[in-house]
Amino acid sequence: MPGLDLSLVSSNWKILQGRLNAGKKAEAQSDGVKRKRAEEKKAFTGFKKTKLSGTNTDTLGKRRKMGNGESKPAGNGSATHDRARLVREHGIAPEDVSAAYGSSAGSIRRQDDEINGGLHPTHKAGKYIALDCEMVGTGPPPHSDNVLARASIVNFHGEQIYDAYVLPPKGVRVEDYRTHVSGIKPSHLAEGYARPFAQVQRDVAELLKDRILVGHALRNDLQALLLSHSKRDLRDTSRHPKFRIDSKGKPPALRNLTKSELGITIQTGEHSSIEDARAAMMLFKKEKAGFEDENRRQFGQHRRFDKDAVKAQAKQAAGDDDEVEHDEDEDEEDDMELLDGEDDGLEGGAEGNAGSKAAGLKAKKKRKKKKRTKRT
């Protein structure tokens, strides 16, 4: 019997071993326990992140870290929404909102503002006007004495009515221009550019006559102008109860009030009395009904009389008195005629008596018809 070919056996053994090894790998892959053990050998890479949702999550499901990073500025869509909200919820005229926002949100300037233009030639004042003033410091350090440096007035629609820089009184030296706050520079108070205090005071007093004055902390502005105004005709945004809620009863700053109530940023640098007056008017317009209700509760219903109508009524009453006196004279003449008729009746007998009675009744009816009461 021939022996086995060792080379052939060796080759078959290798093939068998290869098949066995392939079967073991397939078995290992189908066994869940062995796969788990194999995965455990891999390095730990951390817990799996879960997708989050909510107000602090962006579109990719990543939670934003609070306090880190900068918030994105509102785009044109947000500004448009704010403008629509002011018109819809607060009743502010669209043209006022557009002029207040300007080309970018947060601006309250207008292109037609005429700095130091005095009394505007075309804009009308109307029933409501808003006033704001800028002051400079005088006196010994810390120069806390205030002197009027600028006065500005806008109407109900925010249009500029008056703006003027004011010369300091003679003998008074400005020690602190407060430029970083007031915006006043020495060139603004130069001779030939600024107006005398007496002229500005006279112009403002004329505008205040028979009008309702709106403003923020109006006491300071009127004190700088050395003017007074009826408390019934004042609408001070720093004293309105609703505007004092966030400040816990204290007078709020105009900058904070404009930001919280209107969403508009003012006074980021040098102040402008025109912009501050316009902001106060916009705040008043937003809560106009509340201002008027508070005014009625404090002062009662106010009735304004037309002087011409009162004079016409007095003249008419005087004419009625003359007419009543004239009618009384006619009544006296009728009485005299009646007496004459009675005398004739006595002489004429029975016919005279009958005629006198008829004449008497006729005269009596005539007197009742003409009788009038005097007006008080």
TrEMBL record:
Q: Looking at the keywords, is Hydrolase present?
A: yes
Q: Which domain of life is it from?
A: Eukaryota
Region: Disordered, residue numbers: 24-82, 292-376
Provide the protein name.
Answer: RNA exonuclease 4
Report the main location listed first in the record. Answer: nucleus
Q: Name one GO cellular component term.
A: nucleus
Q: Where in the cell does this protein reside?
A: Nucleus
Q: Which GO terms describe its biological process?
A: ribosomal large subunit assembly; rRNA processing
Q: State the function annotated in the UniProt record.
A: Exoribonuclease involved in ribosome biosynthesis. Involved in the processing of ITS1, the internal transcribed spacer localized between the 18S and 5.8S rRNAs.
- Into which family does the record put it? Belongs to the REXO4 family.
Indicate yes or no for the key word Zinc. no
Source organism per UniProt: Oleoguttula mirabilis
